[in-house]
Amino acid sequence: MSQIIGYPEYMLKLIEKVEETRDKRLKEEYERIAPKEKEELLRKWHPDYRPEGKRPLKIGPSKGLMVPHEVADLIEAYPLIDPAQIDLSRIDYDVDILIIGGGGAGASAAIWANISGVPADRILLVTKLRFGDANTKMAQGGIQAADRPEDSPILHYLDVIGGGHFANKPELVKKLVTDAPFIIKWLEDLGVMFDRDSEGNFIELSGGGACRRRLHACKDYTGLEIMRVLMDETLNRGIQILEFSPAIELLTDPDTGAVTGALLWNLETKEYYIARAKAVILTTGGYGRLHIQGFPTTNHYGATMDGVVMAYRVGAKLRDLDSTQYHPTGAAYPEQIVGLLITEKCRGLGAQLVNIDGEQFVYPLEPRDVVASAIIRECYGRNKGIVTPTGMRGVWLDLPMIEEIHGKGTIQRYLSAIYRMYMRFGIDPTKYPVLVFPTLHYMNGGVEINVKAQVLNGKGEPIPGFFAAGEVCGGVHGKNRLMGNSLLEITVFGRTAGMSAAEYIKNVTPGKLSLKHVERYIEMLKEAKIPPKRKSPMILPEYRGEKVLSRALPLLTI
Amino acid sequence: MNGEEKEERKMKMVRIYIMGKMYEVPEGLTIMKAMEYAGYKFIRGCGCRGGFCGACATVYRIGNDYKLYTGLACQTTVVDGMYLVQIPFVPAEKPKYDIEKLRPTASTVISIFPEVTRCVACNTCTKSCPQNLEVMDAIQSIIRGDLIKAAELSFDCIACGICSMRCPAEIIHYHVFQLVRRLYGKYLAKKSKQLENRLNEILQGKYEEELNKLTKLGIEELKKLYESREIEKVGVIRR
Prior knowledge:
By secondary structure, chain A is of the alpha/beta class. Chain A is built from 17 helices and 23 strands. The longest helix of chain A is centred in the first third of the chain and has 21 residues, at 170-190.
């Protein structure tokens, strides 16, 4: 059933301005921002730079690190369980490698652990929702790899580190850009359907902050296509999957400090399971569902940062969590899709950002933090945004330009997800621009790893038996990730984590299981006088209506 | 509390029936948000919340209309009189195969999924697809031996499983299409020479030294290099 919503009369009137200036803008190249001006723009308008949004962590190995309040509230929080109530003597799952998180990084780790010699029935992947319920599936625009003759890993390196404000961990960036072409080859061998020209070369578009066209895409379903192929391969290999059973704490060997398993919780039956493993790989993703500073998010339902919380309790070092990625172009209208991702690929195909007067105000392919800041400034600093019927502000993303540049049918062919989403609400994006505003997109920081994907402690040493990959990690992207580098990160470091863990377990016997680290953490919380009612991990966000919650009686629960 | 209720009275409300039980919810919400407003906390039936994952397949009727509609709860707005239920799971185990050992032909697909040939071309799958895909045409393409067409027609499938629950031939479309697309991507799509060349260069260590140098450079020097990069123009798609 179609639901005719479309644009109200007054917005259609405003769209005429965009149409009037389109021919002129098609020939216009907006100047890129100068370095000094960029710093000023970010400082004044990027949400990361608002000091009232953050506070220093009070406890743990990264004490003093500035993080958003929403993050601090979960890190400075008591466990959901009392360690004394958990019977660790009955082991439900006894494996070589336990992977926590069922997105692209987890699947890549599982496949590569298996390729590296660990039998499929000795690998267990556990996940909070369904296997594949992750931000990976929602990635639209593409995956970067420098494989064109006019490009090189050197240029890719400079783009990543400059885009990240030179705060990235250099050896991780080197690994990212060097492995990238091999990852494309691996995905191609698995059967991922990349967009290609008639000669078989990839159709590669520009991404924000990249100096070359480097994005390999599968229409605007790139992440979905990669994820479903990785899932298919994981299942074909017979790797064990346990769904709807998130980890709620890690388990450690009290003698060695090694991570030796996890406490899992069945979301449906509410019972807990003990999983023991010689190595644990953390691939739990990021934190969009914390709605940092009240922003809507592009992220999936389970993106609640559980992994960072659990890792910090075993002593993992955190980094770059002071920076959050706001994707410049989240949907701002209609209300039903507010905050959902409008891929950067639109701008890679030539769509410009336009204010209420029909004028450009920023070069459309600056790094994401710059474009997001420019949009916020346009709406709230210069008052040149467009106000929706519900009072939200946004600017136009002039999608019809794409058809003028690349020919009719381009949007339906290469942006079919975006086309479908707007058509569902009665807006034809081949004819009308769409309204956008920044939306919470990505956790730039996270737990620190080395090039072997080993998780590091406060002293910078690897925590035995503990690996991590994907959005849960920090360091690869510094203070700002570029488009197309998250699908790359999950596959590069997921693969590395699987291979490193497979190597590691060769000389390891199963360790003891304890929650000693949790007991220690509780002591630290008490010493720091953290309010005892604050609990984490969050597992799922709360969206139920206030009226219902105010009258809910928790009967029939244990 | 009073203020809150007043606030609610101002909103226009619609009546929806979640598994037969009536709730009043604000007009304009998606089915997903309406169910949450009514007090449901999702464990199943909710994934990406953005139309990409197929977790929230929903079937509904409206009032006395005999038609059975389908939609994604996160992408469909509630209307007054909507009778709805979510499909939390589709019972359909995926057969295992080794993609390395398969030939990219229709007979491969049919040997793994023989039920494909039971398609009676009733078009129920196509009519039920919340992505508006030509599902039946994709199945028929396989029967005709055209895997490329089937791969392209099924590309936007999000595996919600509604077609498979409606199919009188009991085909599990999304598993079939997954195999077809992998066969296409792996064996039938032309391969990139540029990628091969770059892989060889990296294996020969062409960039190793320069990358190592970059990892040791100070910020000021990196900044200079970064800011002096030449930016390639947005190209026009060559097909």
